[in-house]
Amino acid sequence: MTPFSEHLVDRFRDTFPDDVIEVVEFRGDYTFIVKKERILEILQFLKDEPDYDFDLLADVTCVDYLKLGGTPRFHVVYQLKSIAKKHRLGVKAPVSESDCTIDSVESLWATANWLEREVYDLYGIVFNHHSDLRRILMPDGYEGHPLRKDYPLEGRGERDDLEVLQRIANQLPDDILMVETESVKRGKENPDGADVI
Amino acid sequence: MAKATQPLPVHQEPDLHTETMILNYGPSHPSTHGTIHLELELDGETVIRCRPHIGYLHSGFEKLGEHLTYNQWIPLSDRMNYLSPLANNIGFAVAVEKLLDIEITPRAQAVRVILAELSRIADHLVCTGMQAVDIGAFTAFLYGFGDREKIYNIFELVTGTRLTTGFTRVGGMMRDVPDDFIPAVKDFLETFPETWKQIDGLLTRNKIWVERTQGIGVLSAEDALDAGFTGPNLRASGVPYDIRADEPYCGYENYDFEIPIGEYGDVYDRWRVRMEEMVQSCHIIRQIIDKGLPAGPINADVPKVVLPDKSELFSKMESLIHQFKLIMPGHGFEMPKGEVYSATESPNGELGFYLVSDGSNMAYRLRVRPPSFVHLSGLPRMLEGHMISDIVAILGSINIIAGELDR
Predict the structure, then answer these.
(1) Contacting B residues, span 333-372, partner chain A, CB-CB under 8 Å
(2) pLDDT of residue B190
(3) Segment B335-342 mean pLDDT
(4) Do the Cβ atoms of B239 and A68 come within 8 Å?
């Protein structure tokens, strides 16, 4: 794997001086933490600029930093891959709980459609200008967003509003019950009957 | 009071009334290979719109990953993929090892590569076979399943189970491979090319097969990249992207193999690419067998992370304490703080794991990037404009695994 080179990091900083919050390097991979307001322009730049050439959006996901005391609470994470240049890059955009929205990047990569729907479904982050923002894994009408850190592993989310099916016996008219009694009576005479009722 | 009568309309030749029809395909349909629901809008027999609905098998594996230690989650990784469970075990172990920054031993690397390639063959045999069954050719599938059975016997020999393998551990494997592992793999390599030839002879130049698959579900290279396709489905569109070659893991850089690519990106090309990949997988395994499995321990020498050898467990006090310290609730190994994204080439495409560690023994966030999820999202653009009978061909060719799709 060709590592993402230093000068590309510097060039990115120069191009978006006001939007880069931090550049993290860990285990040889770079992650750009950027402001969410211009995420579309930033990803457009990374996709179209020949030196970066990130033609594949590998993944869109989210992390809820509630328990780590993160402010803002959410980070939307984009994993980019360049097939020609053979390098990878992570891009993270913090999203606060009070303004839980970010621009959709569906116009750049069609694959973002479903990946963003999943983030919306499981984290409740609203993607502006998304063509079809519906729940994807959880059923329609489900309340809450299960991958948020304040959503418990078990105990909530069990559905108790389902209509309970009644047993048919309770609704049977009396004459049917009488037929049953008759058949029991016949059983009395049956020689195979082990015990007589 | 009578209503005022409307004047009768002047008699006209009635227009033929046409309207589109909604057809629900699935969620329980024999050729959806899992519970997937396609809402199709049809004009006669032509699909004009397709809306997939998923989530029927959602099991919350990612949420569970935040409440289980890393080694405890490995059995869940194979439950996501019921065609090639070992590939998922390996993908997850590679991701955790990247986060820990530890190297596994050459022997573990070689064993992982053999098992990964065997599961690739098993996965492709099911995919190519089921694709043929869906279209109506049953024989190729049965020939393929004979050899898939051999692979599953090898898995049973090595891991103890056929499906829910859970065989990798962070820093190595659950245990070393038995002595009859290599002879069994050799035996498979001897018989498999014959089966491959039979399947190839039955279908590759078969006129019915060619007419049912060529030009169906075409996806250009640009469209495939736009839709986020990876693996054989992307390579069939002509993009030579293979993580084994691009970002080698488990020592793939030591082996010589080719990346088969297609030209047109239709169902036939996707089938053909999978067939050729099986040949390459055999080629990789043969290189390891010819050199012989590297000697030495199967597990890395990182006592803080790797479980002690089972044979020492009942005879050495230190090993027993060590085992308990790693296994007991509230214990386990310490993880460095950080976030990694690690991708491996699973039989279906890029299987990515995004791990966020807060330093505890459990992942703070465990994200699976499933190839099937992305592939299904690209289904409508392949399907629209085709006939109903082509749905099974196209759906079979992208090899959807519903466990991985819904997680």
Answers:
(1) 338-341, 343, 350, 352, 354, 356, 358, 364-365, 367, 369
(2) 92
(3) 90
(4) no
Q: Which residues of B touch A146 (CB under 8 A)?
A: 60, 63
pLDDT, tens digit (0-9, with 9 covering 90-100), for B89-108: 999 999 999 998 888 999 99
Which residues 115-134 of A have a C-beta within 8 angstroms of B?
115, 118, 122
- Asked whether residue B211 carries a pLDDT value surpassing 60, the answer given is yes
Q: Return the CATH fold of A6-159.
A: Beta Polymerase; domain 2 (3.30.460)
Best A111, A117, A142, A149 member to test B by mutation, with max B CBs in 10 Å, is A111
Residues B312, B196 contacting (CB under 8 angstroms): no
pLDDT tens digits along A22-47: 888 888 888 999 988 889 889 999 89
Question: Tokens standing for B157?
Answer: 């020999």
User: A79–B352: do the CB atoms touch at under 8 Å?
Assistant: yes
If residue B152 lies in a helix (H) or strand (E), which one and from where to where? helix B139-159
Note whether A56 contacts B230, CB cutoff 8 Å.
yes
Q: Which amino acid type is present at position A165?
A: L
A28 sits in the region (left: phi over 0; alpha: psi -120 to 50; else beta) called left
B71-366: CATH topology = Cytochrome-c3 Hydrogenase; chain B (1.10.645)
Q: Read off the pLDDT band of A188 (50, 70, 90).
A: very low
The phi and psi torsions of A104 (rounded to 5 degrees) equal: -75, 145
Edge-to-edge strand list for the sheet holding B363-369: B338-346, B349-357, B363-369
Is the per-residue pLDDT at A2 higher than 70?
A: no
pLDDT in tens, B220-241: 999 999 999 999 999 999 999 9
